[in-house]
């Protein structure tokens, strides 16, 4: 665990699960932290636990200790505070653990959808670069020994390869700059938000982002309802975790309609967050008192649908990129082999 950064979903899930089980066993949060401090070998992790424990041992609330540590997201701290006030702290922590486990799976799925095509494209450029800068010059020597000239296509490709050879350091700097830019976008909050804003507006990724936002909303709503949080407070918390401007607008619309006295199931149905089938499921769950279970089921449905879409995208991109690479490599090789 790092101290100068927000904890990852996996780290938060582990922490919430361990503390939740200890509190469920009748141990106070302060004593639970004491147990974790004695069991933790990692120096950074122990420092975080000690920071939280130093606040809790003075009689302060567990949520205040989490906030003082500075490594937990605000909505996580708020939800735990609401869990303390409602007397459902252990249930709240277990719900958070489940939520963050699913959030980690969601992020890994999204990363695979983005990173795999980028790796394939990078490998394409590497193969083409090697052919143009290293292989074609060998063929030119063969043509010179035969006393003939290369074809126009091969000559142009060879000239381009020589230019790439001369300015290799520039391309290396560009590649390093892109890698650095990627880490900046992933680590710096402002740049990370700009990246998510771009994905929300970019047509090929917009639909997938909206699906992920709906899955996050369903997961988050199931978590808050299972923790005993009322619907208005749940919507306040969920506005911070969807990472989608469109979803935030719909959540704000839901809150306004609830304040006007609308039914929660009707408000969700009219907001457009879910489709008609899911809206009917929510209406039934609301009337039967099983809304958290329905939300969990909806989240699982979205998870399967998103995984299917990601795999579908990858299954199309992989052969497409291979075909493009094969055509380019074939053109390069044929341009020098046929004249021979």
Rg, Å, rounded: 27 Å
% residues in beta strands: under 5%
Major beta sheet summary: none
- What is the mean predicted local confidence, pLDDT? 79
Structural classification: mainly alpha
Helix tally equals: 15
What is the β-strand count? 0
Order of helices and strands: HHHHHHHHHHHHHHH
Which of globular, elongated, flat, extended, rod-shaped describes the shape? elongated
How would you summarize the topology of this molecule?
Blueprint: H1 9-24, H2 29-39, H3 43-56, H4 62-69, H5 74-86, H6 89-146, H7 152-166, H8 168-187, H9 189-201, H10 203-226, H11 231-238, H12 245-259, H13 264-271, H14 276-288, H15 291-337
Brief summary:
With 340 residues, this protein is an all-alpha fold. The chain is 83% helix and 0% strand. It has helices at 9-24, 29-39, 43-56, 62-69, 74-86, 89-146, 152-166, 168-187, 189-201, 203-226, 231-238, 245-259, 264-271, 276-288, 291-337.
Describe it.
By secondary structure, the chain is mostly helical. Helices cover 83% and strands 0% of the residues. The chain is built from 15 helices and no strands. It is elongated. The model has no long low-confidence stretch (mean pLDDT 79).
């Amino acid at each position: 665990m790092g101290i100068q950064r927000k904890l990852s979903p996996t780290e938060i899930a582990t922490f919430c699960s361990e503390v939740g089980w200890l509190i469920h066993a009748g141990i106070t949060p302060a004593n639970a932290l004491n147990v974790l401090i004695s069991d933790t070998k990692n120096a950074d992790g122990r420092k975080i636990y000690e920071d939280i424990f130093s606040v809790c041992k003075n009689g302060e609330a567990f949520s205040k200790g989490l906030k003082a540590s500075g490594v937990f997201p605000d909505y996580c701290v708020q939800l735990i505070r609401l869990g303390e006030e409602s007397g459902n702290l252990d249930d709240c922590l277990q719900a958070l653990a489940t939520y963050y486990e699913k959030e980690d799976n969601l992020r890994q799925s999204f990363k695979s959808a983005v990173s795999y095509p980028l790796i394939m494209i990078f490998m394409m450029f590497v193969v083409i670069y090697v052919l143009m800068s290293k292989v074609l010059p060998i063929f030119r020597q063969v043509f010179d020994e035969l006393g003939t000239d290369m074809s126009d296509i091969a000559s142009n490709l060879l000239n381009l390869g020589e230019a790439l050879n001369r300015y290799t350091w520039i391309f290396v700097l560009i590649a390093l700059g892109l890698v650095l830019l990627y880490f900046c976008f992933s680590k710096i909050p402002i740049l990370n938000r700009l990246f998510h804003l771009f994905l929300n507006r970019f047509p090929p990724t917009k639909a997938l982002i909206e699906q992920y936002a709906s899955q996050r909303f369903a997961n988050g709503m199931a978590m808050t309802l299972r923790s005993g949080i009322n619907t208005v407070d749940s919507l306040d918390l969920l506005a911070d975790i969807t990472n989608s401007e469109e979803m935030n607008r719909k959540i704000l619309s839901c809150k306004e309609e609830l304040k006007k006295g609308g039914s929660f199931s009707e408000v969700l149905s009219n907001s457009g967050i879910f489709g008609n089938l899911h809206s009917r499921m929510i209406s039934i769950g609301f009337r039967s008192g099983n809304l958290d279970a329905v939300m969990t089921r909806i989240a699982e449905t979205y998870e399967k649908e998103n995984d299917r879409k990601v795999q579908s995208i990858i299954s199309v991109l992989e052969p497409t990129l291979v075909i493009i690479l094969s055509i380019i490599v074939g053109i390069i090789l044929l341009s020098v082999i046929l004249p021979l």
